[in-house]
Amino acid sequence: MHDRIIPYLERAELYHLARLNSQWFWLDEPLVSAFVERWRPETHTFHMPFGECTVTLQDVAFQLGLPVDGEAVSGCLGEFEKYMEGGRPAWEWFEDLFGERPPPNKVKHMTVHFTWFHERFRVLPPDASEETVRIYARAYIMMLLSTQLFGDKSANRVHIRWLPFVANLDDMGRYSWGSAALAWLYRCMCRVANMNVTNLAGPLQLLQSWIFWRFPSLRPAGFEVFSFPLASRIYTCCCNV
């Protein structure tokens, strides 16, 4: 994450998430799976021996620093390319925004393999123009959204459904990314609660951080010191009241 990209992340209200991503913790799959087994799709809550509990918008805002107010993050996930810029072909728009198209072997339907984004936009040239910085910021945000907030079971694909959002970087902050992330977590949890679904997907780091904050005995030592200053301050104040 280059310093010149940070202002775009701040305007998009995604900087805190990006900062956490650069210092992210490992995913404890057995721990997360144990909570998934207690998820009930009928109520969108975890059924625990002491009662019910769930992840809320407050948790999303405090732990990931995402906005929970603003316009809804919406769009057609199927044939969405028909609705882009009055029906303009999506890959033409992709080329305009990123300066090139990925090779055919890196494309599957409407997704691009994560490795292409990572290899192509990993290091910002020291003499990059402002337009080049915007391109790299778009690529970083596309990867962030597709892997940390709205990942699917493949875990290695970047969906180009985010093109309408990254096309206008200055307007991204007006969207309620926190609400969308929570809705996606609920959807993924309900799907994995089905006995025929075996792979976990979705913003699992959000679920695990919620587990660590709401069940302190399960969190690793020093978890809250560096990564979650806002949540640490808020939750500590709530506990002291």
TrEMBL record:
Q: Which GO terms describe its biological process?
A: meristem maintenance
Pfam families per record: PMD
Which part of the chain is the Aminotransferase-like plant mobile domain? Answer: 16-221
UniProt cross-references to InterPro entries, sorted A to Z: AminoTfrase-like_pln_mobile (IPR019557), MAIN-like (IPR044824)
Top-rank lineage group of the source organism: Eukaryota
Listed name of the protein = Aminotransferase-like plant mobile domain-containing protein
Organism source for this protein?
Arachis hypogaea (Peanut)
The taxonomic lineage of its organism, from the top, reads: Eukaryota, Viridiplantae, Streptophyta, Embryophyta, Tracheophyta
